[in-house]
Each structure stands twice: as C-alpha cells, then as structure tokens.
Amino acid sequence: xxxxxxxxxxxxxxxxxxxxxxxxxxxxxxxxxxxxxxxxxxxxxxxxxxxxxxxxxxxxxxxxxxxxxxxxxxxxxxxxxxxxxxxxxxxxxxxxxxxxxxxxxxxxxxxxxxxxxxxxxxxxxxxxxxxxxxxxxxxxxxxxxxxxxxxxxxx
Length: 155
Description:
The protein contains six helices and three strands; from the N terminus they run H-H-E-H-H-E-E-H-H. It folds into two domains: 84 residues, Arc Repressor Mutant, subunit A (Orthogonal Bundle), CATH 1.10.10.10; 65 residues. 71% of the residues lie in helices and 8% in strands.
C-alpha cells in the first residue's frame, strides 16, 4: 500500500470514528484531511477536491469542526479565500466545547429536578444522579485540561 492509499484509509477510519461519537462522517474525514495535509492550511476547494465531495458538504462540516474547536479559519494577507487549519489547541477546544454542553445539560436536569420534586423518590434520584455526574464533569474536566497543559509544557 502506497502513502496515498494509507492516507485514504486513515481518513476513512477517522470518518467512521466521527460517526461513532455523533459527528457526521464528513467532519471526521475533513479533520483527518487537514490534519495530514502537507500544507498547514487548506481551502474549502482543496478539501472538496481531495475528498471528492461537494463544496457545501465541506462548508457544513467545517462549521461544526470550528464550533468544536478542532479546526480554525485563517485568512492570508491579500487573499479573500478562507483557509482552514488544525487548531493549535484543538484537543483543548474540544474538551471546552464538551464542558459547555455538560453545563447546559446540568441546567436542563436541574429544571427537570424541579419538575419532579413531588414525584417518586426513584424518579427524583435518577435525575439527581445524572445532574450530579454533569456537575462533577463540569468541575473536573477543566482540571484535566490544566494538568494536560502542565504536562505538555514539560515535554
């Protein structure tokens, strides 16, 4: 298998992984494409051509990847085209996006707890357990990010 074929396999594996975690496969493929590109930046046209997909598919998936902090949009001086590159803090941005979602879920669960305050004890307990897990993760994930950053600086 040559390098181009290996890259294609890697990109497809990442697409399947993305689907497992609830992302569109195209978002995973685009992330893998940009991650393994010789050039540090890629235009939407380059991504679409490389992955043999439509420009609209690239547009939709890149918005999601930007939202999750995995890639970022960049501009080159004198160019009107958007370029995409891997976010230097992509892993950190991804965790921060998860923390925001967990926080939002916790708030919804708190609303739900108020809703069932006069219901069966086991019903209240299951919502409380989910809320407590969200609260735990909401406070522990930032500590993990800090620990990661300290470990990364030591390398």
